[in-house]
Amino acid sequence: MESLSKFIVVAIVVVALMTTANYVMRIKTKNKKIRDALFQLGLGYKRYNSDGVGQNPQELEYKNAGNKLLFKKFNYGFSTLDFYKKQQALEELFGTEFANFERVNQFEVIGQKADFKSPIVKEIKQRTDILIGFDGIKKHFFDENRSAFIFAPSGTGKTHFLKKCIISQLEKLDNQIHIITSKKSDFDKSYSYHNPNDLQDFKQILKTTEEQRLWWEEMGYKNKKYLVFIFDEVQEANDDKEITSVIKSWVRVGRSQNIWVILASQSGTVASLRNIEVNLIPIKIAVRYTESVAFAETIFTPELAFKTHHIKQPMGYGYIKTSSYTGGKVRFYYEP
To answer: How far apart (Å, rounded) are the C-alpha atoms in residues 320 and 198?
Structure first.
Protein backbone atom coordinates (compact mmCIF):
# COMPACT_ATOMS: atom_id res chain seq x y z
CA MET A 1 0.00 0.00 0.00
CA GLU A 2 2.84 2.33 0.91
CA SER A 3 4.62 1.59 -2.38
CA LEU A 4 1.43 2.36 -4.28
CA SER A 5 1.17 5.74 -2.57
CA LYS A 6 4.78 6.54 -3.45
CA PHE A 7 4.13 5.51 -7.05
CA ILE A 8 1.11 7.83 -7.25
CA VAL A 9 3.09 10.73 -5.77
CA VAL A 10 5.95 10.15 -8.23
CA ALA A 11 3.48 9.93 -11.12
CA ILE A 12 1.84 13.22 -10.11
CA VAL A 13 5.24 14.91 -9.85
CA VAL A 14 6.29 13.57 -13.27
CA VAL A 15 3.03 14.78 -14.89
CA ALA A 16 3.41 18.21 -13.24
CA LEU A 17 7.01 18.50 -14.44
CA MET A 18 6.04 17.44 -17.97
CA THR A 19 3.16 19.95 -18.01
CA THR A 20 5.43 22.73 -16.77
CA ALA A 21 8.13 21.84 -19.27
CA ASN A 22 5.57 21.76 -22.07
CA TYR A 23 4.22 25.17 -20.99
CA VAL A 24 7.70 26.68 -20.84
CA MET A 25 8.50 25.23 -24.25
CA ARG A 26 5.32 26.74 -25.74
CA ILE A 27 6.18 30.15 -24.24
CA LYS A 28 9.72 29.96 -25.61
CA THR A 29 8.44 28.97 -29.05
CA LYS A 30 5.91 31.81 -29.00
CA ASN A 31 8.52 34.35 -27.89
CA LYS A 32 10.92 33.16 -30.58
CA LYS A 33 8.25 33.63 -33.25
CA ILE A 34 7.56 37.14 -31.95
CA ARG A 35 11.26 37.99 -31.96
CA ASP A 36 11.64 36.63 -35.50
CA ALA A 37 8.68 38.75 -36.63
CA LEU A 38 10.15 41.84 -34.93
CA PHE A 39 13.44 41.29 -36.78
CA GLN A 40 11.48 41.06 -40.04
CA LEU A 41 9.85 44.40 -39.19
CA GLY A 42 13.33 45.91 -39.00
CA LEU A 43 13.38 46.37 -35.24
CA GLY A 44 16.63 44.45 -34.70
CA TYR A 45 19.78 46.23 -33.52
CA LYS A 46 22.82 45.37 -35.65
CA ARG A 47 26.27 46.04 -34.21
CA TYR A 48 29.04 46.93 -36.61
CA ASN A 49 32.73 45.99 -36.74
CA SER A 50 35.38 48.64 -37.16
CA ASP A 51 35.40 47.90 -40.89
CA GLY A 52 31.71 48.81 -41.08
CA VAL A 53 30.49 45.27 -41.71
CA GLY A 54 27.45 44.26 -39.68
CA GLN A 55 27.74 41.50 -37.12
CA ASN A 56 25.22 38.72 -36.77
CA PRO A 57 23.05 37.82 -35.08
CA GLN A 58 21.08 41.01 -34.54
CA GLU A 59 20.09 42.01 -31.01
CA LEU A 60 16.68 42.83 -29.60
CA GLU A 61 15.54 43.35 -26.04
CA TYR A 62 12.04 44.22 -24.91
CA LYS A 63 9.86 43.82 -21.85
CA ASN A 64 6.16 43.12 -22.15
CA ALA A 65 4.55 43.67 -18.76
CA GLY A 66 1.52 45.41 -17.33
CA ASN A 67 0.19 48.23 -19.46
CA LYS A 68 3.49 48.89 -21.25
CA LEU A 69 5.69 47.35 -23.91
CA LEU A 70 9.23 48.61 -23.34
CA PHE A 71 11.88 48.35 -26.08
CA LYS A 72 15.34 48.57 -24.48
CA LYS A 73 17.54 47.32 -27.30
CA PHE A 74 16.31 47.82 -30.86
CA ASN A 75 17.07 49.63 -34.10
CA TYR A 76 17.79 53.04 -32.55
CA GLY A 77 17.34 54.66 -35.94
CA PHE A 78 13.61 53.97 -35.54
CA SER A 79 11.66 57.09 -34.55
CA THR A 80 8.32 57.01 -32.74
CA LEU A 81 6.76 57.66 -36.15
CA ASP A 82 8.31 54.38 -37.37
CA PHE A 83 6.66 52.58 -34.45
CA TYR A 84 3.31 54.08 -35.41
CA LYS A 85 3.83 52.80 -38.96
CA LYS A 86 4.35 49.30 -37.53
CA GLN A 87 1.54 49.68 -34.99
CA GLN A 88 -0.93 47.29 -36.59
CA ALA A 89 1.71 44.55 -36.90
CA LEU A 90 2.80 45.08 -33.27
CA GLU A 91 -0.81 44.91 -32.06
CA GLU A 92 -1.37 41.62 -33.86
CA LEU A 93 1.92 40.16 -32.59
CA PHE A 94 1.33 41.03 -28.93
CA GLY A 95 -2.46 40.61 -28.96
CA THR A 96 -3.17 44.07 -27.59
CA GLU A 97 -3.89 47.59 -28.80
CA PHE A 98 -1.58 50.55 -28.29
CA ALA A 99 -2.80 54.07 -27.54
CA ASN A 100 0.56 55.70 -28.26
CA PHE A 101 4.33 55.30 -28.44
CA GLU A 102 6.68 57.48 -26.41
CA ARG A 103 10.43 57.87 -26.67
CA VAL A 104 11.76 57.93 -23.12
CA ASN A 105 15.32 58.66 -24.26
CA GLN A 106 17.57 57.88 -27.24
CA PHE A 107 17.60 54.18 -26.40
CA GLU A 108 14.16 53.40 -24.96
CA VAL A 109 10.68 53.49 -26.47
CA ILE A 110 7.48 52.66 -24.60
CA GLY A 111 4.27 51.48 -26.22
CA GLN A 112 1.34 52.45 -23.97
CA LYS A 113 -1.33 49.74 -24.09
CA ALA A 114 -4.92 50.90 -24.49
CA ASP A 115 -7.38 49.88 -21.77
CA PHE A 116 -10.79 50.21 -23.37
CA LYS A 117 -12.46 48.27 -20.54
CA SER A 118 -12.04 51.14 -18.08
CA PRO A 119 -15.32 53.02 -17.48
CA ILE A 120 -15.71 56.47 -19.04
CA VAL A 121 -17.10 58.86 -16.47
CA LYS A 122 -18.11 62.45 -17.11
CA GLU A 123 -16.91 64.31 -14.03
CA ILE A 124 -19.09 67.13 -12.72
CA LYS A 125 -16.18 69.57 -12.89
CA GLN A 126 -15.92 68.82 -16.62
CA ARG A 127 -19.62 69.44 -17.25
CA THR A 128 -18.70 72.68 -18.99
CA ASP A 129 -17.35 70.71 -21.94
CA ILE A 130 -18.42 67.91 -24.25
CA LEU A 131 -16.70 64.54 -23.84
CA ILE A 132 -16.30 62.63 -27.10
CA GLY A 133 -14.55 59.44 -26.10
CA PHE A 134 -11.64 57.53 -24.57
CA ASP A 135 -8.58 56.26 -26.45
CA GLY A 136 -7.62 53.72 -23.80
CA ILE A 137 -5.53 56.19 -21.79
CA LYS A 138 -6.92 59.71 -22.22
CA LYS A 139 -10.34 61.27 -22.63
CA HIS A 140 -10.94 63.64 -25.53
CA PHE A 141 -13.21 66.66 -25.37
CA PHE A 142 -14.39 69.41 -27.69
CA ASP A 143 -12.10 71.72 -25.69
CA GLU A 144 -11.86 75.12 -27.42
CA ASN A 145 -13.11 73.65 -30.68
CA ARG A 146 -16.65 74.50 -31.62
CA SER A 147 -17.01 72.66 -34.92
CA ALA A 148 -17.14 68.96 -35.70
CA PHE A 149 -17.72 66.73 -38.69
CA ILE A 150 -19.21 63.30 -38.01
CA PHE A 151 -19.25 60.54 -40.61
CA ALA A 152 -21.14 57.29 -40.14
CA PRO A 153 -22.25 54.81 -42.81
CA SER A 154 -25.91 53.79 -42.71
CA GLY A 155 -26.76 51.57 -39.76
CA THR A 156 -23.64 52.28 -37.72
CA GLY A 157 -25.30 54.33 -34.98
CA LYS A 158 -24.94 57.96 -36.11
CA THR A 159 -28.29 59.10 -34.70
CA HIS A 160 -27.63 57.34 -31.40
CA PHE A 161 -24.19 58.98 -31.23
CA LEU A 162 -25.65 62.45 -31.93
CA LYS A 163 -28.42 62.05 -29.37
CA LYS A 164 -26.67 60.22 -26.54
CA CYS A 165 -23.16 61.60 -26.84
CA ILE A 166 -23.44 65.13 -28.25
CA ILE A 167 -26.99 66.45 -27.81
CA SER A 168 -27.61 65.02 -24.34
CA GLN A 169 -24.51 66.78 -23.00
CA LEU A 170 -25.34 70.03 -24.79
CA GLU A 171 -28.85 70.02 -23.33
CA LYS A 172 -27.45 69.74 -19.80
CA LEU A 173 -25.43 72.87 -20.48
CA ASP A 174 -28.67 74.71 -21.30
CA ASN A 175 -27.62 75.55 -24.85
CA GLN A 176 -29.81 76.70 -27.71
CA ILE A 177 -29.84 73.78 -30.15
CA HIS A 178 -31.18 73.89 -33.70
CA ILE A 179 -31.27 70.67 -35.74
CA ILE A 180 -32.02 70.18 -39.41
CA THR A 181 -32.20 66.68 -40.85
CA SER A 182 -33.70 64.45 -43.52
CA LYS A 183 -35.61 62.37 -41.00
CA LYS A 184 -37.42 64.39 -38.34
CA SER A 185 -38.53 61.27 -36.48
CA ASP A 186 -34.93 60.72 -35.39
CA PHE A 187 -35.00 63.78 -33.11
CA ASP A 188 -37.43 65.23 -30.57
CA LYS A 189 -37.39 68.66 -32.18
CA SER A 190 -35.90 69.43 -35.57
CA TYR A 191 -36.42 70.95 -39.02
CA SER A 192 -36.52 69.09 -42.32
CA TYR A 193 -34.59 69.81 -45.52
CA HIS A 194 -37.56 68.49 -47.49
CA ASN A 195 -40.34 70.47 -45.84
CA PRO A 196 -40.46 73.95 -47.50
CA ASN A 197 -41.83 75.64 -44.37
CA ASP A 198 -39.29 73.98 -42.11
CA LEU A 199 -36.45 74.85 -44.44
CA GLN A 200 -37.53 78.49 -44.64
CA ASP A 201 -37.87 78.76 -40.85
CA PHE A 202 -34.42 77.23 -40.34
CA LYS A 203 -32.83 79.58 -42.87
CA GLN A 204 -34.42 82.53 -41.08
CA ILE A 205 -32.79 81.36 -37.81
CA LEU A 206 -29.45 81.15 -39.63
CA LYS A 207 -29.90 84.65 -41.05
CA THR A 208 -30.94 86.16 -37.71
CA THR A 209 -28.05 84.50 -35.88
CA GLU A 210 -25.53 85.72 -38.46
CA GLU A 211 -26.89 89.28 -38.19
CA GLN A 212 -26.55 89.04 -34.40
CA ARG A 213 -23.00 87.71 -34.72
CA LEU A 214 -21.96 90.59 -36.98
CA TRP A 215 -23.53 93.11 -34.60
CA TRP A 216 -21.83 91.53 -31.58
CA GLU A 217 -18.47 91.70 -33.34
CA GLU A 218 -19.01 95.33 -34.30
CA MET A 219 -19.98 96.28 -30.75
CA GLY A 220 -17.11 94.29 -29.20
CA TYR A 221 -19.60 92.12 -27.31
CA LYS A 222 -18.95 88.47 -26.38
CA ASN A 223 -21.99 86.21 -26.57
CA LYS A 224 -22.04 84.03 -23.42
CA LYS A 225 -24.63 81.40 -24.34
CA TYR A 226 -23.72 78.63 -26.76
CA LEU A 227 -25.70 78.57 -30.00
CA VAL A 228 -25.53 75.07 -31.48
CA PHE A 229 -26.47 74.21 -35.06
CA ILE A 230 -26.55 70.54 -36.03
CA PHE A 231 -26.77 69.74 -39.74
CA ASP A 232 -27.63 66.06 -39.89
CA GLU A 233 -27.23 64.53 -43.38
CA VAL A 234 -25.43 67.73 -44.32
CA GLN A 235 -24.91 66.49 -47.89
CA GLU A 236 -28.57 67.48 -48.45
CA ALA A 237 -27.48 71.12 -48.09
CA ASN A 238 -24.40 70.86 -50.27
CA ASP A 239 -25.93 72.84 -53.16
CA ASP A 240 -27.89 75.30 -51.03
CA LYS A 241 -25.75 78.47 -50.97
CA GLU A 242 -27.79 80.09 -48.20
CA ILE A 243 -26.81 77.25 -45.88
CA THR A 244 -23.28 76.48 -47.09
CA SER A 245 -22.22 80.13 -46.95
CA VAL A 246 -23.27 80.35 -43.29
CA ILE A 247 -21.52 77.06 -42.48
CA LYS A 248 -18.29 78.34 -44.08
CA SER A 249 -18.50 81.60 -42.15
CA TRP A 250 -19.20 80.02 -38.76
CA VAL A 251 -16.56 77.32 -39.13
CA ARG A 252 -14.01 80.12 -39.54
CA VAL A 253 -15.21 82.73 -37.07
CA GLY A 254 -18.23 81.39 -35.17
CA ARG A 255 -16.14 80.21 -32.23
CA SER A 256 -15.51 83.81 -31.15
CA GLN A 257 -19.24 84.15 -30.39
CA ASN A 258 -19.76 80.60 -29.06
CA ILE A 259 -21.51 79.38 -32.20
CA TRP A 260 -21.11 75.63 -32.63
CA VAL A 261 -21.38 73.96 -36.04
CA ILE A 262 -21.82 70.18 -36.04
CA LEU A 263 -22.08 68.47 -39.42
CA ALA A 264 -23.07 64.82 -39.78
CA SER A 265 -23.31 62.66 -42.87
CA GLN A 266 -23.63 59.08 -44.00
CA SER A 267 -22.34 59.95 -47.47
CA GLY A 268 -18.70 59.02 -47.91
CA THR A 269 -18.03 60.61 -51.27
CA VAL A 270 -16.01 63.77 -51.79
CA ALA A 271 -18.44 65.06 -54.43
CA SER A 272 -21.38 65.06 -52.03
CA LEU A 273 -19.55 67.61 -49.82
CA ARG A 274 -17.72 69.60 -52.48
CA ASN A 275 -19.19 72.96 -51.34
CA ILE A 276 -18.49 72.38 -47.65
CA GLU A 277 -14.90 72.80 -46.51
CA VAL A 278 -14.66 69.89 -44.13
CA ASN A 279 -10.86 70.26 -43.92
CA LEU A 280 -11.29 73.51 -41.92
CA ILE A 281 -13.28 71.78 -39.19
CA PRO A 282 -11.00 70.87 -36.24
CA ILE A 283 -12.84 67.79 -34.94
CA LYS A 284 -13.33 64.80 -37.25
CA ILE A 285 -15.26 61.75 -36.09
CA ALA A 286 -15.85 58.46 -37.89
CA VAL A 287 -18.39 56.17 -36.26
CA ARG A 288 -17.08 52.59 -36.62
CA TYR A 289 -15.30 53.05 -40.00
CA THR A 290 -15.05 55.13 -43.18
CA GLU A 291 -16.54 54.26 -46.56
CA SER A 292 -13.41 54.69 -48.69
CA VAL A 293 -9.74 55.55 -48.26
CA ALA A 294 -10.10 58.51 -50.67
CA PHE A 295 -12.86 60.04 -48.56
CA ALA A 296 -11.09 59.18 -45.29
CA GLU A 297 -8.02 61.11 -46.45
CA THR A 298 -10.14 64.27 -46.60
CA ILE A 299 -10.75 64.07 -42.83
CA PHE A 300 -7.79 62.13 -41.43
CA THR A 301 -4.05 61.76 -41.94
CA PRO A 302 -3.12 59.21 -44.67
CA GLU A 303 -2.03 56.57 -42.13
CA LEU A 304 -5.18 56.92 -40.02
CA ALA A 305 -7.37 57.15 -43.13
CA PHE A 306 -6.11 53.75 -44.34
CA LYS A 307 -6.74 52.24 -40.92
CA THR A 308 -10.25 53.70 -40.55
CA HIS A 309 -11.37 52.13 -43.79
CA HIS A 310 -9.83 48.69 -43.41
CA ILE A 311 -10.40 48.13 -39.68
CA LYS A 312 -14.09 48.27 -38.81
CA GLN A 313 -14.79 48.82 -35.15
CA PRO A 314 -17.67 47.31 -33.14
CA MET A 315 -20.68 49.35 -32.06
CA GLY A 316 -19.72 52.14 -29.69
CA TYR A 317 -16.23 52.58 -31.15
CA GLY A 318 -14.75 54.67 -33.91
CA TYR A 319 -12.01 57.12 -34.79
CA ILE A 320 -11.49 60.79 -33.93
CA LYS A 321 -9.06 63.59 -34.69
CA THR A 322 -8.97 67.00 -33.02
CA SER A 323 -6.69 70.03 -33.18
CA SER A 324 -4.84 68.66 -30.13
CA TYR A 325 -5.01 64.92 -30.95
CA THR A 326 -3.50 63.53 -34.14
CA GLY A 327 -6.13 60.85 -34.22
CA GLY A 328 -6.84 57.24 -33.35
CA LYS A 329 -9.36 54.72 -32.12
CA VAL A 330 -11.73 55.68 -29.28
CA ARG A 331 -14.61 54.23 -27.35
CA PHE A 332 -17.36 56.84 -27.49
CA TYR A 333 -18.91 58.29 -24.37
CA TYR A 334 -22.68 57.98 -24.11
CA GLU A 335 -24.78 59.69 -21.47
CA PRO A 336 -26.62 57.15 -19.30
So the answer is: 32
What is the distance between the alpha carbons of residues 238 and 117, in angstroms, rounded to a whole number?
39
In total, the chain counts a number of residues equal to 336
d(CA 63, CA 227): 50
- The upper half-sphere exposure of residue 121, i.e. CA atoms within 13 Å in the direction of its Cβ, equals 5
Residues in the chain with pLDDT < 70? 1-28, 50-56, 270
Rounded to 5 degrees, what angle do the CA atoms 23, 24, 27 make? 90
Q: Which residues pair with 113 in a beta bridge?
A: 98
- 3-class DSSP assignment, residue 65: strand
Three-state DSSP at 114 gives coil
Contacts by 81-86 with C-beta closer than 8 Å and gap 24+? 83/109, 83/111, 84/303, 85/303, 86/41, 86/43
Instruction: State whether residue 240 is helix, strand or coil.
Output: coil
Question: Are 225 and 258 within 8 A, CB to CB?
Answer: yes
Q: Which residues pair with 64 in a beta bridge?
A: 69
Q: What is the reported pLDDT for 53?
A: 66
Q: Measured between alpha carbons, how far apart are the two ends of the chain, in Å? A: 66
Running DSSP on this structure, what letter comes out for residue 257? G
Please state, in angstroms and rounded to a whole number, the distance separating the CA atoms of residues 107 and 78: 10
Q: What's residue 173's pLDDT?
A: 84
Contact criterion met (CB below 8 Å) for 161 and 150 = yes
Residue 176 to residues 171, 202, 228, 281: CA-CA distances in angstroms? 8, 13, 6, 21
d(CA 299, CA 131) in angstroms, rounded, equals 20
The span from the CA of 281 to the CA of 279, in Å, is 6
* Residue 176 CB neighbour total at 10 angstroms: 14
User: Which value, in Å, is the radius of gyration of the alpha carbons in the chain?
Assistant: 27
AA identity, residue 289: Y
C-beta separation of 145 from 99 below 8 A? no
